[in-house]
Amino acid sequence: MSKIKLAVVFGGMSTEHDVSIVSGTSVIKNLDKTKYDIYPIYIGKTGYWYIYTPTNRVYKVGDSIDNISSLSNPIQYLSQMDCIFPVLHGLYGEDGSIQGLFELTKVPYVGCKVLASSISMDKVYTKIIFEKAGIDQAKYIYIRENNGKYIYVDEKFDEIICTLEQVIGIIEEKLKYPMFIKPSNSGSSVGISKAKNKEELKEAVTYATQFDKKILIEEAIKGRELECAVLGNEEVQASCIGEVLSAEEFYSFDSKYNNNESKTQIPADLPTEISEEIRRKAIKAFKAVNGMGLSRVDFFVEQGTNRIIINEINTLPGFTDISMYPKLFETSGINYSQLLDNLIELA
Ligand SMILES: Nc1ncnc2c1ncn2[C@@H]1O[C@H](COP(=O)(O)OP(=O)(O)O)[C@@H](O)[C@H]1O
Ligand SMILES: [Mg+2]
Predict the structure, then answer these.
(1) Average pLDDT of span 121-131
(2) Average pLDDT, whole number, for the chain?
(3) Ligand 1 center from residue 42 Cα (angstroms)
(4) Which atom of ligand 1 is nearest to the CA of 250?
């Protein structure tokens, strides 16, 4: 049988560019070379596309790529492939934009399509879908910023235009401290802060507007952070559950990538009923956003009540060989290379 011509696309124009270099090179290294002819494509931070020639170098987060040469006609290049494997995280990679470009080439690609990608990248719209699906989540409100004015958007999508002071008043009326303030479209915790009082809330809201005009504010959940990986198109399987033990007050960018004290525990030490419920809810959430291929679904288990609360769904989760997504499946009996085969098969 002839080999599959597979493009692996990594890097990208998001804040998670550096993570994607580690994920992408790791995927390239672990793909079965007897099955695939691999065409690695690196997208620079500013959006230029390059052909990457793999070396033995093992990348760490923060390393810049070497061994690249420019690629002048990406669409034509991609069109000659049998399959495309995007290993991109965040904006322009995980949000449906590049998936739209792949649609134009008519080449099958790994993972979620345009709609699921863009819903899942947008924290506000993810909330709206989960609400519709009846999956428990943290209480939230949604605001926008426009030229120094704030817009509060209510449950019926009616809008109130107000000042920062007024919007803070509305938030305080609706939600209890501590709160999490998040740019709706972001990733790797960039732009996210926790606020315990009015001053911090004000600062957090203005800070978040630097990353997105759409902002989500949530009540903080006190509890454990648990993650479940899903794999499939119509028939979806869920992995065992992993736990994130953050070294800092919350799982911030530094705590994710720069703090060695942050640990993960796979499988998480949980009663069977709870892990089964998380797995069920992970599949339900994946279906609710119209997911395909893969996703990592993140939850909290609330301290005291054991209530399972969904946090978010990541349609292109970290994919280094020590990342949660591949580790969860490895522990569930599917090794990294088999997982890559499965994903390509599903595409
Ligand atoms: N409502 C919340 N309650 C408690 N912790 C939260 C809440 N929302 C976010 N966090 C913390 O912030 C981290 C990043 O938030 P998250 O919504 O997962 O953003 P990202 O998409 O950047 O990963 C989470 O891993 C968790 O540690
Ligand atoms: Mg997260």
Answers:
(1) 97
(2) 95
(3) 29
(4) 27
Split into its structural domains, the chain has a count of: 3
Instruction: Please report the beta strands in the chain, taking only residues with DSSP state E, as ranges in sequence order.
Output: 4-11, 36-43, 49-52, 68-70, 83-87, 140-146, 149-153, 159-162, 179-183, 193-195, 214-219, 223-232, 236-245, 263-265, 293-302, 308-314
Domain encompassing residue 239? 121-136+222-346
Model confidence at 322: pLDDT above 80: yes
Q: What digits encode the pLDDT tens for the residues 87-121?
A: 999 999 999 999 999 999 999 999 999 999 999 99
187 lines ligand 1 (CB under 6 A): yes
Report if residue 178 sits inside a domain: yes
Query: What would the DSSP string read from start to end of 159-194?
Result: EEEE-HHHHHHHHHHH-PSSEEEEESB--TTTT-EE
pLDDT score at 199: 98
250 lines ligand 1 (CB under 6 A): yes
pLDDT in tens, 154-176: 999 999 999 999 999 999 999 99
Same domain, 242 and 208: no
The finding on whether 221 has its CB within 6 A of some atom of ligand 1 is yes
- Domain boundary among the residues 165, 187, 219 is at 219
Q: Which ligand is nearest to the CA of 186?
A: 1
For residue 61, what is the domain's CATH number? 3.40.50.20
C-beta of 253 in contact with ligand 1 (< 6 A): no
Is any ligand 1 atom within 6 A of the Cβ of residue 180? yes
**What does the pLDDT average to over 6-33?**
95
